[in-house]
Amino acid sequence: MTSWLVTLVVGVIAGTISGVVGTGASILLLPILVYQYGPQYAVPVMAIASLLSNVGKMAAWRRDIDWRACLLYALPGIPAAALGAKTLLVLPPRVVDVALGAFFLVMIPLRHRRRAKRARVPGYALALGGAAIGFVTGIVLSTGPLSIPLFAAYGLTRGALLATEAAASLALMATKAATFGALGALPAPALAQGVVIGAAVMAGSFVGKAIVQRISAQVFERAIDAVLLVAGVALIGAAVR
Prior knowledge:
The protein is an all-alpha fold.
């Protein structure tokens, strides 16, 4: 019971952070779920929770969604996410832990490098990025640190950025969850746990909207870096132990 309570509280906090900076919910929750259930079970649970997280952000910013950008990203990303999900299920658990942790840590310098260039990407680059990030999403789950800068480079900001990235990610996560279900990797308990955790994250998304206008860009970036660092070190440490 105590572990569940902690998970739900972290879910609300993670949803709030995600509602503000566009990412962070999965990064915060995944190490906790991996510790409790192992990566092969935790990732499907988090996939369901991420679905609801993105629904929450879409609902909060529904009038700001850029559907053209969403489709450019999601259409090639959907089959890539299915392929990535199949790849995840055949990997050894320790490899998954290390891959998740290393991915988060590598994202810190890559995000800053991309932001420093300040170049606006064309539509075809958004589509190519959707395919690549879609495959990675199937394996490592949380790719907000990649997709958020990509949509920002396309020219979206604030509500439009948060809502459009959420809508596109929703399509990828739905594909991933469906793939897990088709392969028998989404049992009823995992589905139920994902829904409960996702509801907590959704609640946090609306809290995030209430404070998004009050946080500076520097605070946004530092918060994302801190979340990536903590989650990456925690996952790699778990794999080593």
